[in-house]
Amino acid sequence: MAEKVKSPAEVMKLLPQEDCGECGCDSCFEFALKLVERTTTVDKCPKLKKSALKKIKNMLAPPMAEISFGSGDKMVTTGGEEVMHREELAFFGKTIIAYDVWDTMSEERLVERVNDIASMSFVRFKVQYNVDAIAIRSVSGDPTKFKNTVKKVADTTDLPIILCSLDPKVLKAGAKVLKGKKPLLYAATKDNWEKVLEIAKEYETAVAIFSPLDLDMLGSIAATFAREGINDLILDPGTFCEPDSITETLSNISLLRRACVKAGVKEVSYPVMTVPAVASMSFKNKKMAAHYENYLANLFVTKGVNLMILHFPEIWEFMPVVYLREGIFKHPKLESAIDPDLYAFNDPDEMSPLMVTSNYTLTYGIVSGDLDRYRVKCWMLVIDTNALSVDTAVGSGDFCADNIVEHMEEFDVESKIKHRILIIPRVAAEILPELREALPDWKVVLGPKDSSEIATFLTEEWEKLLAEEGAA
Amino acid sequence: MVKVKLKKKGEEEAQATPSSGEGKEILDMIAGLNRLMKKVESIRGIDLEFDEIILEGVMPPYELLSKLLSAAPPAVGAPAPAAAAEVAEAPKPAIKLEEFKLTPPIETHPGAFAEVVLGATRDEGGTRAFTLKIGGNNTPPYYRFEGGLPHRPVIAHIVFDEDPGLSKLLREQYGDVVEDPAAWAKKLVDVYGAKAITLDLNSTDPKGTNRSAEEAAQTLREVLDAVDVPVGIVVRSGNMAKDVEVVEACAKEAKGENLFITSTSLVLPTWVGVELDDEVLQYYDIAKEYGHTIVSYQPMNAQGLAWLNKTAINKEIPTSKIMTDPGMVGVGYGTELVVTTMDTVVNKALIGDENFQPPIIAAPCNAWLNREAWNKFEEWGSEIERGTSFECATAAAALASGAHMLVMLNQRAIEMTEALLDKIYLTKLTDTRSVMRHLPKNDCKKCGYNTCQEMAEALLKGEAEVEKCEQMTPAGIRTLKRLLNPEGVKPDPAEIANWVVEV
């Protein structure tokens, strides 16, 4: 089967063609373009007939199934991929990140670990990032023990749960506890698939199919489950991290993706998962193991893997994986610049400090995050640097004296602010002479190198700077 | 009237065992019918093919039926009499596994990356002890189902000619040599086993220390004299003219050494079709004249890279003397844009576009430019581990996107990367340092040797058994055994372990 080609012109035929603008686009054709590149959704059109809606949905359905598990606000969704590489369009099925607990832990330790996992988070650009799901492993093999563990975990957190055992009796004991909460069963294998299928049907769960190094069996089981009405499936071709076998794992991930998005092989057109937690089998030293796990996780995220189970809930490992994931799964067509303006932070007055930065989303996000974090009362002039960061824009000439002066005039800085002190980032030190020349009435000073140091800098320097100005 | 589904061949008997006597009656009757039908079927030549029969004259009350149902799984909803008896009698039809054979979706790629050699030995006009080869792949990164992985990526350890402001972790590694680039390079090779060195001439920045081109060349000379591994330079004065000046002085000083040279200050015209600045042309002329390998650098700009490469190719510099640098940045700072750039480079190279075929060099050390690698925010955990995890994450993104060469800074991240590459490329370990990478390095003495180093030496000589190490996991032992003898030791099926119980 050939790759499906999606045409905006074909979508256009099904749209009302009134250019009413209610979807936020100027024309129906623009809406069609955006639907194809997936930067808008079809429900934005209020005038679409039901039959046309259905047709468009079918036409635009990605080759890879979209699946979900968990329930309520915390439900997670992934899959829906349609390209091999980000350059072709975008990756959509953001990697779900899960950490594990197991049924041989004491109740106290279990609760502690679940809380550690659920509370591990950091804030970036005003978004809080948390772990997406929790995996419970049956190490004891005892259904009762597993059931109790699952119950305890479900009482402690509302994160979606992955039930891990290859024994159907154990899985069933866990699934029973989570009735209505749609757990992910890990895993159906060539030996247990019949029983796992029964459980999946009875408790309406999602299912991971684990077929190490046997992709034919992986497809066989997936096709069987799909035929039997279980469609929330995810494929695990096995995560190996030893010599040579790791290469096979990397290769298999790409092979499955190619079979799905390019060759249209329906049997394997499901999201793919890996288990970087296997890294902990390679080292007794926990830090070594955690670093190896981090390495594997980032390889997999770059390859667009849709779900990962990790073992070391360390913030220093969680951060880089999420940083990379947020980038890899960001739609390239979405804006990377913010509007230039004079932004007010924490209710500044006419004597509050004035600083300047670039309009690159990342730069602004980091700077504004720091100003919020330390409750810095100030004005931030954001100038148009063609969405380049400050250091890059200094090199390209976009962060220059003329540009800063122009923006100061445009946003009427001189009437909003009484003092005449302008603080510029240290990385822009080289524009200092020309800027001083261009702003003879102003005292232009170098601020800190990193925006995390702004608060300290201002505490130490601002009063002094104001006093100096007053004296002058 | 009750409809009864008869069981087909190969199906199991109904499991239902109703508690009430009346229910049993019906089941018994059905079971009897089943037996009868089986007997009929067992007669040669007779094949019964029907799904249901009608039992006339039986009119069970609803209560009886619901009792019957509650005993027979799976009982769903409140059934009509007809459906009810179906469930009661029939075991679920046996579920057949779909047959499936995956035909690997192999694509043929008319193009391949060029092979580039780093350094030059005495025979080749240089003074390096060995050379390294990179590139040459004709498949996307790690698509082993399409072809082999020809050359293992090389890691160049970076040396600065002026302290760039090393953080705590890096100061632990290089604090003693940070003032002396030659000593720094020597430490990288002697202590840390570097196979290639990149000298970053950051002191040439006119807005900084502004060292002259001659001084830069002198520093390079000292580094070349201090080490015998392939060497490269990075010039990033921020000024095209100065960069070219420095590149020329260095190229001349190191004539014949086959340096890999990068200038990050070359700027392209805004419009395609406008002529390149003279400095850009000079940059490639210099490399050609002195026989070095030249790197085309444009951050996150595949077309720009191709334009530069084309310029070099038009000057009759072969693709085996050019590399492509897409401007790697730390994770969270636009790494995905570099990944996308590399995707484009790989795709075009494999299609056969020569301008994209010079191998890719990427610098995960740039992760250190971002505060996540060194900032002491307590809520971000240990900054020591973070420095390593962010550089490793960046290196992982580069490798997964097809980098042929990495420029790295932190030894812990470099060790992690080399250990990973040992496994991906199934590289036979031939020196103590590489063996040490896979040992616990805690000198516990339980193996009978005083240090892990002694154990490593013994392992290389075949005088010790990996199993003697008590500090390694079974997987760790398998890994080291395989790497010591890739041909002789077969993959262990135990590797397909059930992580659910073993992690």
From TrEMBL, chain A:
It is an enzyme of class 2 (transferase). 5-methoxybenzimidazolylcob(I)amide binds at residues 357, 363, 451. Residues 3-62 form the 4Fe-4S domain. SUPFAM superfamilies: Dihydropteroate synthetase-like. Keywords: 4Fe-4S, Cobalt, Iron, Iron-sulfur, Metal-binding, Methanogenesis, Methyltransferase, Transferase. This is Acetyl-CoA decarbonylase/synthase complex gamma subunit. [4Fe-4S] cluster binds at residues 20, 23, 28, 45. The keyword Disulfide bond does not apply. Pfam families: CdhD, FeS. One of its GO terms (molecular function) is 4 iron, 4 sulfur cluster binding. PROSITE patterns: 4FE4S. GO terms for biological process: acetyl-CoA catabolic process; methanogenesis; methylation. NCBIfam families: PRK04165.1 (NF003195). Its EC number is 2.1.1.-. InterPro entries: 4Fe-4S_dom (IPR007202), Ac-CoA_synth_d_su_TIM-brl (IPR016041), ACDS_complex_subunit (IPR051069), AcylCoA_decarb/synth_gsu (IPR016218), Dihydropteroate_synth-like_sf (IPR011005).
Automatic annotation (TrEMBL), chain B:
Residues 427-489 form the 4Fe-4S domain. One of its GO terms (molecular function) is 4 iron, 4 sulfur cluster binding. Coiled coil: none annotated. It holds the Pfam family FeS. GO terms for biological process: methanogenesis. Gene3D superfamilies: Dihydropteroate synthase-like, Electron transport complex subunit B, putative Fe-S cluster. The keyword Translocase does not apply. SUPFAM superfamilies: Dihydropteroate synthetase-like. The keyword Iron applies. InterPro entries: 4Fe-4S_dom, Ac-CoA_synth_d_su_TIM-brl, ACDS_complex_subunit, Dihydropteroate_synth-like_sf. Residues 1-21 are annotated as: Disordered. Keywords: 4Fe-4S, Iron, Iron-sulfur, Metal-binding, Methanogenesis. This is Acetyl-CoA decarbonylase/synthase complex delta subunit. The lineage of its organism: Archaea, Methanobacteriati, Methanobacteriota, Stenosarchaea group, Methanomicrobia.
